[in-house]
Structures
1.
Amino acid sequence: MELGDNLGTMGTMKCSFCGEVFRLSEDDSEGNLPRVLVCAHIFCTSCLLSFHRHGVIRCPECEVESTLPEGGVFALPEDNRIIGLIYTSKMNKMKRSSGSFNCKKPKLTPAKDVSAGTEVTKQVDVEEIKIESVDEALARAAENIAVLDTIHETLTVGLKQQVRRERSRLEAEIKQTASEALQAVQKWKDVQLSQLSQLEARFSSSQEEVDRVHKRRVALEIAMQMAREVHRVPFLEQYCTLDKVVETLEAPVDEQSYDMESTSRGCGLSFVFLSENLNQSLVLSLKMEVAAPKQLFKSPPHSRQQSSSGKKPPRPSPKVTHPNSAWPQPESPRAPGSCSPRPAPRPRSASEPEVPEELLADGQEKAAPPTGPQLANDWRIHRRKKHLLLGNKRNVAQWVVLSHVVNPSHFYVSYVAEKREREILEKKIDLFCCADGSFFSSSDVVETGATVFAREGRGLWSRARVLEVFQSGCVEAVDVCPAGRLDRLRLFFLDSGLGKSLDIHRAEETAASSLKAVNDHLRKVEEGVKVELRCFAPQAIRCSLKDLVPYDPTKGWSREAQLEFLSVVGSAAVKMRPMGQDRDSLLVDLRKAPVDQSSDVPISIREYLVFIEVARFYSPVNLGRWPLLFHPPKYPEVNTELDAVVSHINSPADFYVQLVDNMEFVLLSTKLQDYYNATTVSAEEDLTIYCPVMEQACVARYEDGTWYRARVVGHPGGRKVEVHYVDFGNKKTLPVSDLRKIKDEFFALPSTAIHCCLSGVSPLDAETWSDACRNRFIRLALQKLLTVVATGNVPKAEPLPVKLLVSGPPGDIAELLVREELASFKEGIESAAAGEEFAIWDPPLDQAWVPEGGDAADRSSSGEKEEFRLRLPDQLKDVKVRVSHVNSPGSFYVQFTQNNAQLRRLCQLVEEECALMEPEEVLWKAGMFCGALVDGVWERGRVCSDAASANFIQVMRCDHGNKVKLPVGNLRPLPSSLTGSLALECALTDIRPAGGCSTWTATACELISFYLTGASAVLTIKEVTGEPVPVTLFCSNKTGVLVNVADFLAGEGLALKERKPRGAAVQTSTQTDARPLGIETQTDGSDGEKRKEQTPSAPPVSAAASVPPRVSAPKPAPRTIMSAEKVKTELYRPPELPGLGPIQMSVSAIGEDGVIYGRTETAERLLEQLRQRIQQRLDSLPEQKPYTWKSVQGCAVIGPDMLWYRGQLLEVLGGHVKVQYVDSGLVENIPVVHVHPMLLCADVPQLCLPCQLHGVAPVGGRWQRDAVALLRELLLNRCVNLQVTELPSDPRGPLTVELYLDGLSLSRILCHHQHASECAASPQEGRADASPVLLVDDWDIDSKDLRDPEEPMLGPFVYPDLPRGGGRFGVRVKHLRTPNELFLWLSDGAAEVEVGGETLEGALTRVNADVGALQPLTSFRQGGPCLAEYRDGKFYRAKMLKFSSVSPVCVLVQHVDFGSEDTLPTSRLRRMPADLLRFPLQALKVKVAGFKSPRASGREDLLPYSPGWSVEAALKMIDMLHESITATIVALEPELTMLLYDEDQQLVHLPLVSCGLADLD
């Protein structure tokens, strides 16, 4: 037992890192106790003291970082198990040493003076004692035998069970490993078969012969054609050489000249089974690992547990990976927070190396050289064994040897520890190169990026990558070259770093000699060889001495520096200490062992090269001369509008713009990328910048890898520079390695980024710009196409003051920032919208109107209540206003600028009054004032109509003019002191609607609303008689010039000027001028009576003053007024109506009112004849004349394709008319010049039939836009079946029809989408829904041998039994749609339910094994069961929800066992076998009770299908549902509702409520 103890504890008593024995603390020595890290690895105290850095220890085994406690390393927990073993061993040793002294046998020495009788008695006693001791020993031995029998029986039974258990486990692992190997072989087979599609490229000789025959045949056919034409027309002989034609025709075909045997040759490829390498390959791939026996009944440490299930995953093959789960689960394509389980990757054991995917991919062979440290070092880190694991960390020094040197900033090393690996690699490569399959043949090609075997300097074969290929007879490099025509190529050796140019010298210019020359230098790498060599990483690691630059940076590295570097390092091993990484190079320092044995200080190679003055450490330098600079940008001319894009913004006073008409910059950028991305290694060395100089022009690489022109503006340190991109304006800190010297040709174009500042504005505090202003300016201008106007000339060193103008509102960005109180105008500068200062009429902008008798301060001090009602200013001319809302040119609302302070004060008072008020039950009537919560702000409102709904009511915003629909809970009663309005309703004077209509067109309303809403304007009130008030309105355009809005509408053809008598002067009577002008506002007094307030009278103003000073209206040029020709046309003949019954029709248009226009098959034929007649009749355009369109009904229209069509005039809209094409039903707005008042083919009736659906009524009484859009998507340009149910009384009215799409009623489709509702059929009709079968024509079809439909009507899915009793039960979430709408499954129901001895998984496996036997789906009823194909190619149970699209036909299905949804074409749906319906559903849709979506989240990241919830709430809910969840059932109807609890028995939704992502319900 002691020997066993020693053997068992020998490895435990030692540190696994240093090998030292653990020691206990004693009085005379300091102990070395074992301590445990967070990752559960154990090391001695001495090792841990050497590991820790800044309070953190990185485990050398697993690289997990452990933070030290306050006491440091000595505060880490000790391993009591090992300490107990040490104590036990020590105690045993002490017992053995003490026992060796006390084991002497006692001797009996009788006294000499005892008598003989006494001696006899004593001898008898001694014999009795011996007999008793023997009896006791025998009894104890019997007990020991019984104990040993029990132990033997226990061990025997345990051994049998152990063998049986391990045999079962090993058999399962052997089977799974063999299965994985078979899958790998199958995958290799599929890859090879897929590559056979490129097999034709290997038969180049046969293809050449085919091309020769084809060319000869084409030439012969051309000659035959020429000969026939000459024979037919002899005159053509002079245009061709007849002799050559005849010679071509008579030339015989020499069959011997064509290589007919080329098709009998093979491609040279073959696939063989190398049986001699089978055992070796199987040993590498299928490996039986032998490790120390593990305890089977004690759980491993917490950090090494594989999974929550406790099951050990099977050991995978190192080269074959596949999902461990055989039950892939679809995921939701719609919900971003979907918890749908998907096929999880196979768990990886802690000791299994993780091989990067890119090392296993074939694409590795085409990576661009040189080989970087990331590829090789990472590969090694994962591949090295345990005793070398620590040596491959980048922060630990390693012994290396130089393999190739370009210069001290570009050299390659290889690890000394991998010498044995390199030897094995060289032997393998030499063996591969001796095989016959490695020789190039005439059908082989050499391409750029391929891996080959080539002879290196020592004459050994090595791996190399092809960088450039040169073909015989070609000057430039090619991508692919046949092996027989190879002339020269440039290689990069992966295992040494050497770049070499290889010339192919041929003894003779024959194919055999060329191939022999190629095979003397190269060998090809077959696919099997590539696979076997993947386990060998590139041996050469590119390195660079950190912070070392040439002694003379302008000349680069000298030859002397390279030779000195080689001489000092030589072939000896040096210690490399990694210090960082710069792209594909490791930044290192090399240290060589000292030559002098008396010194143990290593020699630093960097310091040595600096000492001998062939290199120096990097430091920024400033040369005495100025570097070459870029040309400054060309500034635009003053007051010239140019289109530009704002490329970079620092603040409104510091930003950069690019002019968009500069095409030279686009060409320059393209040339930059082409040149610097195609730079070779040697040229890159010439362009490298080692020590950049301040203000030096260069080319810098941006973070996206693109090259741009830049200049150096700073040296932050750490071999980094700060550059300024001269073509964009932004700055960036980059490593020096990202800079390149700029070629002279890229200096020609000046800098394109113009440094600008906003003109006329300054910060609010006159010093610094606020973050709010900067962010607002960035949102308005950054990367936007704007109009730039320079306002002055400045020196090139200063920013150019400009105006930034946006098309449409807000117009001038500077004015918008001032209006939003983010900036202020500079002293002496005002908004351009205000025009020039009008000294006569303008009242102060910062004062409200003050009535006679005192100012506002006097009123406030005298105790008068502050009133917030509209009061007109004293002067009604040129009043500055802001347009708040626009309905039409005859109704819009403005706010006086002088009332801004009063409006802000009013909002504060309304919020103070209403915010804390609880909702009350108020019967709201029309005209009542209220406090309304609009977009989170309390405002004054007025109820527009009596409350027709208990939830919503329409309210007009008193101080803005627009109407909104608000919930009743957002309204509060308003005190009488706060009632009134500060918005004035106005109407433009001197204009009227165009087109002879009395109302304004939608185009005019939309245009004026687009330009005026929110704009600043100058207003002149013509007359105050009541609302709307007639006014003249002036707004500024982009250049700041005031424009009359009425004249603008008239110029656009949307309005007409009011007619006035000739010579009539505008007069104003004295009585009118003396009459008090004012607006009467009725308010409710305290006594309930209404009182009237009238504004004070304005002083008399002459009519001439109504026009703003210095702004004169433009005078139109003289023109000749032509009298309009009166013309009258009739409508075209009405269409010929069909009879009642089924017909077929092609839908041509859908009207905005939901009317369907279509043509029958007969009408389609007539339409073709009609088009020919019209085009033959009108071969030229008629003369354009002015017409009066009031009496025009039918007309002729020139369509967009410049063809004539018949039309019907609907409405005149200024310069356009609304026309309906009578033969298609389409309605368009067409310019007047394209419409002529005449009838085309008046004898032909209208060809299209208007139709309306029977038995449905649109929601809201009219068809909505989304309903019309759905109709157009379903019906346009489609031939449909319909049943005419009723003819109109008016022959031009619509037919009443029942329309079917693929057997589905269109009316029911619209009702399903909630666009319409079914109307109750009248008793007179008594009509049932027409069956689609009745729409078929009455054909005489013999249905005797026809079979009934094969697809049975399947029933619904079976729901599982839910737990009863109201207790909690475990659940597992399968899919999350919203935070309170989940799909889950019972944890105890996770076990498969067997039905008829088969589980659902087994049934689906059986069905997917024979997919070809599944019938396609033909019945698409809502909620019907089906089998849906998932993206893994397997079919799962699903149910159909709806049609998501018609062209192509796609169906939205839900995977019933997972809850996720998918949109699939009908080709991916199959009919479900009836036996699959026996299994209950595996996912239940549940509503989680207790919380709901937040009332007003104000967030932008919302779920598109459920806008009430944010994406953050969904993601947080997903995180909380990964724990162990229990549930209780709250309700079963109308939907299944549950409460969910976490591991702490707390409701899972409480964290969402506390974060404000949800509200309690």
2.
Amino acid sequence: MSDILCEWLNREVTLSRPVDPNTLPKEFSTGYLIGELLHKYELQDDFNQFSQSRVANAKLNNFSRLEPTLQLLGVQFDQNVAQSIMTEQPGAATKLLYQMYIALEKKKKAGLTGVAMETMRPAAPAKLKYIESTLYRERLKNLTPRQTDLRLQQVSEHFEMKSKNMEAKITRVHIVEQQKVQKLQEEQRVQDLEKQRMSRRRQNEIMARIQAAIIQIPKPPPNRTLKAIEARKILKKKKEAEDMHKEIKKFEKFMRKGSPAPSSSQVSGSNIQESLKTQDLDSAAQDISEQTTTELLNTYSEDEYIRKIQKRLEEDTFAREQREKRRRKMLMEQLIAHEAQEEAYREEQLINRLMRQSQQERRIAVQLMHVRHEKEVLWQNRIFREKQYEERRLKEFQEALDREAALAKQEKIDYEEQILKEKELHRKIAAEIVEARYKKHYSMCREVINQIIDLSTKTGEYRLLTNNQIPIKLMRDWKEFFFNGKPLYAQALIEPLPTEPTAEQLVELDKMKLLDEKDYDEYKSMTGEWHPPKENSGNKPPPNNNILGYVVRRLMAIVYPPKAEPPPPVFPSFRIKGCILGKLFSGKTTCAKFLKEGCNIQILSIDTLVEEAIKTFHENEIKIETNLIPQEAEVSVKQNELSVHAQLGAASEKFLKKGKNIPDELLVNIMVEAVKQTPQKRGWIMDGFPMTINQAKLLEKALTGSDPDEAQVKDERSRKPLLVTDPTAPKDPPLPLPAFDFALLLDVSDITVLKRMADSKKSTQDQQEDSDQASDAELKEREKIDLIRDQMQYRIAGFRESWPKLEKWFSVQQNILVKVNAEIEENLLCRSVKEIILEEIFKKQNKREQLEKREAEKKQGTRTPLQPTETLTDKNKETERISQDKDPALTKSKVPKELPKKSDSFKDKKRKKDEAAKGKDAANKPGSARGKSPVPPEDLPPSTAVGPPPTKPGSDKWVYIDEPLPKEIPEFLVPYWEMVENNYVNTIKTILRHLRDERHSLIYYLADIRNNFLNYLKRPDHKQAFVSQWQADFNSTADDLWEDEETKAELHQRVTDLRDRLWDICDNRREEAEQERADFMNDGWLPDHMGTVMNHFLSLMQVEVDRFQDTKRLLHDYYRGMEGKIPTEASQEFTRIPLLDIVNVEQSGDQNKSRRIPVIPRRAPSPEINTTKPKSKGTQLKSSKDENSSENVAFSFGMDEKFIIDTWQTAVLAISNMVTAEIQSKETEEEKEHQQIEIKEREHQKSSQATGGKAAGKDAKDTRKQPPKSPTKKKGAPSPAPVVEATPVPLTPEELKKQELQHKMRREYFRALELEEEAAKSRLELIKIKAIAFVEELVRKAEETYKDMEKWLGARFLAEMSSVEKLTEVARHHIESSTKIQFEMVLEETDFFISSEVKVIPDPVPQPHPPPAETSANSALTTSQLSMLHKQFLQLAPKGLIPSKTFLDIFLDLITLNLGTNNLPDIWLRLTVSDLQKLASTLTVNSELIDWRRFLLAASQPWPIPTVIQLLKTLHGFKAVDEAASGFVTHEYYNQVGLWFKGSEDLKIPESPTEPLPFNRLEHLITFFFTLFADDRMDPPQLDYIKMLLYFASHPDAVEGVYRALSIATGTYIHRKKEISSPCMSVSNIDKQMNGGPSGEEGELPNYTDEGRISMATLLRVFQHEGSKDEDNNRFSDLQKESSYNKNFIKIFKELGSEDLKPIPITLLLKHPFIQDLIKTYQEYTLPNFKLILQRAEQMQSTDGETTTSKDIKI
């Protein structure tokens, strides 16, 4: 399973790092890869917040973010699963990945996105999942230990290990001290044993001398027998021997106990040697003791005596056994003891006697003892001195140790201070770097913000200039400036560009070049502004002229032959090639050593290699190649001939001796030499090299042979055509593979580097304390570390400077960079690096195998012998092409209908000549029937075998002609074509730049005239003077005249005169403004610039025509050169397109003829034409002039459009004429050549007639004259005199091949002209369209400006008139009120002020009311809540039935998880589980299913409950609309018919505008009922109205509901028989109230009381309208119910006389007992009432609240 999942993750998903089954739990323990997997499937949007770290906080963050997504997928995931994955428990990650694999595959098949899956989830489960996610995060936090705890645990473990090591060290020291003490004790014991042994020897010698000096005096024989005496002697000797043996045994045991056990494994070599010495001494002492015992035994016991003693003892024993054993034995022992004592006494006496006899021997013994005592004293003195010396040495050693410890402590303190200083320095450097980076980013952001501000201000300015209609082209140009970091505003003027431009002028030049390149690219590719419009979408960019591209490339290859590149260096295919980079102390060398040992890879360190090179140089390595130098010559090799390695070492030493750095070139050479010496099977990895970008590039060049800098220069210098491309050109060689297979970066922070440096210092100090003596290598390593430590800051700064370029090189250009977090443990780092290396090796092997397979396939493909056949088929195809008719597409040119009919004659001639050539070729073929039948080719039947279509010239299969060219032609044509390209590109850029300038000038011109006209309209007037004079006169009226009627009339007349005078001023101002507008329109600026724009577009057409002419000339000279003909002289009469004469200066005809470019005068429309146009009634004269002026603009646009179209037709016709002329010239050349060939043949025939017979000559003439007779001659033309013709001279193979080549060359040339003609015409068509569009846009903008001016003028005039009216009203009011005007009346422009502060304005328009908002009242659900429930139910059960358990779960979720969503009213949120069960029981009648539509219908109350008559009216209304009688209506017809109630009509609109309008609930309920009962699966949704009305037939009385349903089903009113003893009297009263009383129905009953008949299907629909067809396909479906009703109803129909189940009367059916029982027991039409349940829940909630509050108070 793990292998399958790993393959899926590595191949299909392609995670960021590969996954191995062995490391699967570890890789997925952080949760990062799981997030990446979900992000690949577009499910984890917050993947950028995931962390790859393995700390606890990162894991907690990752798994907290994963839980909602996994729950969305349906994967079982909780805190236990997360903990098991984080703790890397086996099988946990595999199980989760398998579940994710299944879920993701399902999602992939379903084609759902994460957003779609989220929206498909119901609201209640989504909220529940949200709460579970919160609980999951809290539990996961509790389960996951904090990172600080883990770090504290690591620190405690570290110190525990350290304490254990210290204890072990102390125990080792204690053991060593014990061993030293034991060693001293052993030495002392050995010395004592030696002394004892020497003393014993001396004593033995003394005793032996004494024994030898003793005179044996015989004893007097005892009275006993001899046998008893001998027996006593033997026993005594035996006892002494046994005592001596026991003494020796005791001594040996004592020696063994005192010797140390040699089993300890920690004893050093010196202790082992000392133990071995003690063992030797013990063995020697044992040998000595054994030797003494054996000597004694030999001396004191002989075999004979022993046998006698044994025999005697046996006899005594036998005798004692016979006698009294005990008494005998005791006596015997006493006797033996007594004898022994006596014997001892005798011996002592004997010794004393001997001592007395030898005084000299005693003196000698005393002297010996005295000497021995002196020696012991000397030895003890020596031991005492040694002890003193030892104590002194120990004291001095301890003092030395104390001094060393003090020095080490001081050095440690100094080192810590140095580390602190280095850290502080590093912080300062880091702060400076951060500050520099901040300044850099700040400057960048400042520039960007300034550009954004410039863009916004520029946009605002142009919005004001263009009236919020900025052209798209301007926005594109501004975006181009913005994206390239160029300023939007002009920095300086470049029109008079000086010789030394300033920086601002250079910026402006760059901006101009940038826009020029952009516009030219758009024009060339027909994109952006030059994209064809939609109506001309077929006008796509013209295809590339492959033939022209091939011709140009061939000519350039001849003139500029490519330079041969040196071959790349050859290296064996190594197993792996890479480098490990990083800062100091990042772990490079450690990982390299690990890889060297574990993966068998050669590690190349530049420091080591330089040292080895210098060492090789010092050892004078001789450069000897054994393969080239024989053995005899090896001796004669001089010592100064060094190897390459030694030479590199010598060069390196020179630089180092001078105190300089070794150059990068030399370092790279040393590294390359080491690579060459590396075995192929091992592979190599460079340790810390390259360190700079220069080293990387040099190494790339040395290993691959490709220099990236030279490649860029070569690309810039490469000469490629600008206008056409050659698809057959050899493609650029693929980029060589990079020198490395991978570049591994060990990423580590600067703080970690400093910490590791400090740790290395401590470790070196510990090593120095442990081992005083170190080797030279260790000392050098320590010195190197100290040197590096001094240069640490500089090294870090150097790496920080050089790494960004290296990172860009390895990641962007070579894409081989792999980053590894090196701030982990050493073992984990080495393992991860090893995994990466093994993965790279595996990838390289796979690539190599794939390349080998491809090469093998290519070799197998080349082995098949297809080349000869292909060449033959190509030749056959060529001959077939020659023998067949020419492709008409090649000779046809796209000439318009206006061309003269001469082209048809040329085509006919060409066709005839092709037929003649075809006849000749057929005659030359072997087996031809030419001589047998003179049938022309067109009369022959068509051949049955249809071959492949001929290859078109320029296609991929076409073989281009590459005949040799004269040297002069390429040398002339290549500069000519380069000049054509440069002129074409530069001219188009210049024209497009002028078009941009014209667009800007148009915008500024229109903005200026708009602003000027507005300012003109706001010019001051003299109205205020008249108003002030009138007010002064008015206020000067006498007081007694205010009430006089005549005075009032006079004042009114004065007001009228003032109004008329002010109106006259307004009329005059309007006429002046109209004249100003007419002056703006007739200033001539717009026609002049329109003519300039048209000339620019005409110049574009001229450029395209010139390009076609130059291209035609190039092709003509090229193909004539291949034919071996001299190119014709270029005609000086180039086609020139006429331009508009903007100046309108009359010139003479000679001047017009002298011009190279023809000029056409631009004539404006005459005023007579304008005045003849009809005028509308009621308009004034000046407005008619304005209309004429606008028509003038439109008329000029029509003339300009016609001129553009005529010019385009002229250009297209000129191109077509050029193509036709070229074809004609080719035809005439062919005719001339054919005539010359005929003349030569005739001369040859004449010479052959002189030698041959006449008959043969005559036949030959007849056969020769046959082809020319043909269709070119008319039928009535007189035939010439018969001429005797000879047979044609057979053509040689060379001539045939030449004809074939000429024919192919002609086809290729014509096809090239055709392609170039098509391209030129398509570009001309686009220029025409864009020119018309540009001019039309210019005219439209001008017209809009003129219309705006007219609109402003009218609005101004009306506003002035209105202000005059307001002033008149105020004046008349004061006249009528007979009061003076206290405040000054001010008439300022279009406004009227009173006292210059109060402005008179019209009454404001009242504000609209806010939109209505529905609020829940009591227990009623709002329409939005109903819609939400409907969507949720529809998603779960589209057909309407859900299990009661599901219904309860949904409402429990809505009640418990109502987090501010307002899904239910407050009273519904108080429902308990028991209340919900009661609610479900009211909805479930005969099964466990609930009809949620019935629930929503009951929950939507209150709404008017219909009567039967209202239901029947609604039913007949729907049937009237449903003309097809389908039973369905759309929403439109539903709204047209409506229901029995409409929206509320008594809604009061509030008076305050801030209050919202009342909510029309009934109107919204009508819309909701359609969505509730409509079928969304239809398009558009349709409503089953009978089904809906059956739902509305529900009634509190179940029986009444059934009768209502039967009435709807049959369409007639069915009466219910009233029972006397009815238990539902109250219900009937309710029915009366609901129906509006009986009187409401009696008047309308006769319309629906017809005798109704009911069918079987209708009856089933009434009693099963909630199930059957509309049931959901689940295991709760009640299918037996339908079958049981069906059988019973069939039985009833047959009993009532309907054998064929035809409809029967409803009255007859109701009399059947089964139907009556069914009606009484059927409960599906009961209208549920939820009010009781909700009221009970509210009461319970209130009582519970009181009890809880009372309890709280008691507590």
